[in-house]
């Protein structure tokens, strides 16, 4: 990627600078400068006056020859031939500057070419200065430290370069300040994007970076960045308590095992260490089709979010004996047979936006307090009743199902709740007094019916 | 942001150098975490640690670069020397070869740091007395001849570890006090830091495209 200066190993980045076009309006002309380092390219736009300012500073700070910049012209400076000529003169000027100053690009030139956005020295220097000034404040804040994959990539690559930690000579830009910060920071958010960075062709989804220096990381969030690009997971997994990977996973094992294939011996003994401290895992908005057996390595997880994936069922959750909150919303789940044989102590279950037509499989989740099954295919009161009599149920969300259309839907459901009808809230609404009265009547009728049946069957004997 | 753990008035840059396996990372860990890491993997590239100490009533943050001893990282390792205020040069008292290599480490250190960099020689693993391969006297003489400070330490028991890091800082601080170390020189390895952060109100982050005066 973009870096001016010495080469790493055999990596030799060819760099070019060109003025590829102009934009004119009736007042002034803007030159479009294209900088390429290796296969990374970006563009910046400047007017002649910007060149003029740059040049003055270079003359002052770097003893550049004053005559190198094509001179100002007051009149007739909008003609086509003039602009063409000036474009090539300015291009030659920039090429000369970069050629002579390449070993240590001065800050004014670096910022003229926007190195702080696109080039690893510029990017890391900018981070270093930011963290020198505000690192301690950021450490005290509860919010995560937000970085882009490009910043992390730049840091990773910068550390491989055999260059002094403070190549710019400005102590505030010493990369030591970055390390100082990242070895202590607790929450990190990697904000990726599928868009190209600024005016460049840099594709952040392709950049690999290493987190192993994040020694104190408790919380890692990442968006739009495939986990195969994240290196150093083996190190951070020891401290992580919360992890959130969105739009970056195809399988849970991509993260949990991080590329390892041999993790169990033939007799099933696990050969790798567990994620000892992980209690919250958010794998939502990915393309997971199946919960694989690597969850065995995250046994302390209490909260698991698998919403917005492609699950058709649940597997291997028996390994998560601490699980109390499970979000499976917006998947493709049709039925969950005997869920209680897989999960014991679940309190909150979200199954909204699936294809469930029966809740039979949930009938023995005796610890369940909240169940959200909005927007499924539940049509029959009989298929819903299974969860109404669960001993701890408090919140039931059934909206968006065909069963909502059933006549007297609310009272029919509430009736199934038996004695708990007072504690339950259905679709975020506690039963009204009128409903309670109706339910009481319905329950009484049912009881007497049942009694009759009993008596009848008794006499038959 | 009143006085808190984040207030300090100086930053000193340290590097730890020496052959692989002499215990550099363990020394750093012992110093920053007060624990011994028995199964420490070889350092890949670089490790890093910080700790705030106090010298003569001044809070000083040490930014410590722990380098890899393996030859293949030598080029990168060398790049960390520049701007170091202190260099801890470590050998293993149970392996003579690591002691024999000191002169080459010292040459690097002298060439790549500035004349004021305090170089501290550490003979590590002093807990392994039975396997000793280098005597105290011999190393002490080497240190004296080359003007180095010297201690034998154990990253395992913690013996003398604290002293090695602190004595180095004291010496650097002394150099500042008597004027022999110029704080304004870019490569002094020392930064004076105003105790209160510049911008205590605004705590949101700067996204990358905010740009800065780089
Ligand atoms: N007995 C004893 N063992 C030590 C001591 N210090 C380190 N060790 C052991 O020596 C081995 C190497 O220690 P490291 O700290 O990894 O060595 P290093 O100098 O960082 O090595 P590289 O990173 O490869 O350059 C480890 O197995 C440590 O457990 C010590 O003071 N006493
Ligand atoms: Mg090491």
What would you note in describing this structure?
The complex is a heterodimer of chains A (461) and B (214). By secondary structure, chain A is an alpha/beta fold. Chain A has 2 domains: 15-113, Phox-like domain (PX Domain); 118-387, Ribonuclease Inhibitor (Leucine-rich repeat, LRR (right-handed beta-alpha superhelix)), CATH 3.80.10.10. Helices cover 30% and strands 15% of the residues of chain A. Chain A has 12 helices and 16 strands. In chain A, the strands form 3 sheets. Chain A has an 11-stranded parallel beta sheet. In chain A, strands 1-2-3 form a 3-stranded antiparallel beta sheet. Chain A has a two-stranded parallel sheet with strand order 6-8. Chain A is elongated and about 115 Å long. Chain B is α/β, with parallel strands linked by helices and 214 residues long. Chain B has a single domain (10-197), classed as Rossmann fold (3-Layer(aba) Sandwich). Chain B contains 6 helices and 7 strands; from the N terminus they run βαββαβααβαβαβ. In chain B, β2 and β3 (58-67) form a beta hairpin. At the A-B interface, α3, α4, α5, β4 and α6 of A face β2, β3 and α2 of B. Guanosine-5'-triphosphate binds at residues 20-26, 38, 40, 42-43, 68-70, 124-125, 127-128, 154-156 of chain B. Chain A: InterPro entries: Leu-rich_rpt, Leu-rich_rpt_4, LRR_dom_sf, PX_dom, PX_dom_sf. Chain A: This is PX domain-containing protein. Chain A: Keywords: Leucine-rich repeat, Repeat. Chain A: One of its GO terms (molecular function) is phosphatidylinositol binding.
């Amino acid at each position: 990627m973009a870096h001016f200066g010495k080469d790493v190993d055999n990596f030799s980045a060819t760099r070019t600078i060109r003025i590829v076009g102009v934009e004119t309006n009736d007042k002034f002309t803007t030159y479009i400068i294209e900088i390429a380092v290796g296969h990374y390219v970006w563009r910046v736009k400047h007017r002649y006056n910007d060149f003029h300012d740059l040049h003055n500073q270079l003359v002052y700070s770097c003893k550049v020859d004053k005559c190198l910049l094509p001179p100002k012209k007051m009149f007739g400076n909008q003609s086509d031939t003039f602009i063409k000529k000036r474009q090539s003169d300015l291009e030659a000027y920039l090429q000369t500057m970069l050629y002579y100053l390449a070993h240590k690009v001065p800050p004014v030139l670096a910022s003229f070419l926007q190195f702080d956005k696109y080039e690893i020295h510029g990017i890391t220097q900018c981070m270093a200065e930011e963290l020198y000034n505000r690192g301690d404040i950021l450490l005290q804040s509860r919010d995560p430290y937000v970085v882009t994959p490009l910043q992390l990539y730049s840091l990773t690559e910068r550390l491989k370069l055999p260059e002094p930690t403070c190549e710019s000579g400005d102590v505030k830009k010493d990369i030591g300040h970055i390390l100082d910060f990242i070895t202590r920071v607790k929450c990190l958010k990697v904000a990726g994007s599928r868009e190209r960075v600024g005016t460049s062709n840099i594709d952040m989804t392709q950049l690999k970076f290493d987190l192993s220096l994040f020694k104190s990381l408790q919380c890692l969030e990442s968006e739009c960045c495939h986990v195969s690009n994240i290196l150093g997971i083996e190190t951070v997994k020891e401290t992580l308590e919360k992890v959130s990977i969105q739009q970056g996973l195809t399988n849970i094992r991509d993260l949990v095992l991080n590329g390892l294939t041999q993790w169990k011996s033939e007799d099933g003994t696990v050969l790798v260490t567990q994620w000892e401290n992980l209690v919250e895992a958010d794998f939502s908005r990915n393309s997971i089709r199946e919960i694989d057996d690597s969850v065995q390595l995250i046994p302390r997880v209490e909260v698991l979010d698998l919403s917005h994936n492609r699950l058709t069922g649940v597997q291997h959750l028996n390994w998560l004996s601490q699980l109390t909150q499970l979000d499976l919303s917006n998947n493709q789940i049709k039925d969950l047979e005997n869920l209680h044989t897989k999960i014991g102590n679940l309190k909150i279950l979200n199954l909204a936006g699936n294809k469930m037509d029966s809740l039979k499989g949930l009938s023995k989740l005796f610890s369940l307090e909240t169940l959200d099954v909005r927007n499924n295919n539940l049509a029959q009161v009989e298929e819903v009743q299974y969860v109404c009599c669960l001993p701890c149920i408090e919140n039931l969300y059934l909206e968006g199902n065909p069963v909502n259309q059933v006549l007297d839907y609310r009272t029919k459901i509430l009736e199934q709740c038996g004695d708990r009808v007072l504690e339950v809230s259905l679709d975020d609404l506690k039963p009204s007094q009128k409903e309670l009265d109706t339910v009481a009547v319905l329950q009484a009728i049912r009881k007497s019916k049942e009694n009759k049946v009993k008596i009848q069957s008794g006499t038959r004997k | 942001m009143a006085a808190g753990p984040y207030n300090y008035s100086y930053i000193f840059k340290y590097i730890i150098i020496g052959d692989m396996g002499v215990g550099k990372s363990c020394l750093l860990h012992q110093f920053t975490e007060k624990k011994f890491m028995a199964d420490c993997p070889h350092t890949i590239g670089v490790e890093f640690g910080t700790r705030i100490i106090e010298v003569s009533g001044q809070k000083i943050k040490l930014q410590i670069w722990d380098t890899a001893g393996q030859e293949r990282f030598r080029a990168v390792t060398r790049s960390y020397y520049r701007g170091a205020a202190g260099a801890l040069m470590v050998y293993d008292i149970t392996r003579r070869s690591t002691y024999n290599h000191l002169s080459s480490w010292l040459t690097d250190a002298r060439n790549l740091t500035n004349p004021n960099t305090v170089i501290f020689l550490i003979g590590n693993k002093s807990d392994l007395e039975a396997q000793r391969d280098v005597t105290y006297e011999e190393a002490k003489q080497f240190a004296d001849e080359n003007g180095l400070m010297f201690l034998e330490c154990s990253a395992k028991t913690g013996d003398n570890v604290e002293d090695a890091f602190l004595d180095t800082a004291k010496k650097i601080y002394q150099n500042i006090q008597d004027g022999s170390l110029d704080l304004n020189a870019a490569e002094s390895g020392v930064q004076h830091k105003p105790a209160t952060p510049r911008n205590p109100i605004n705590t949101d982050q700067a996204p990358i495209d905010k740009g800065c005066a780089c």
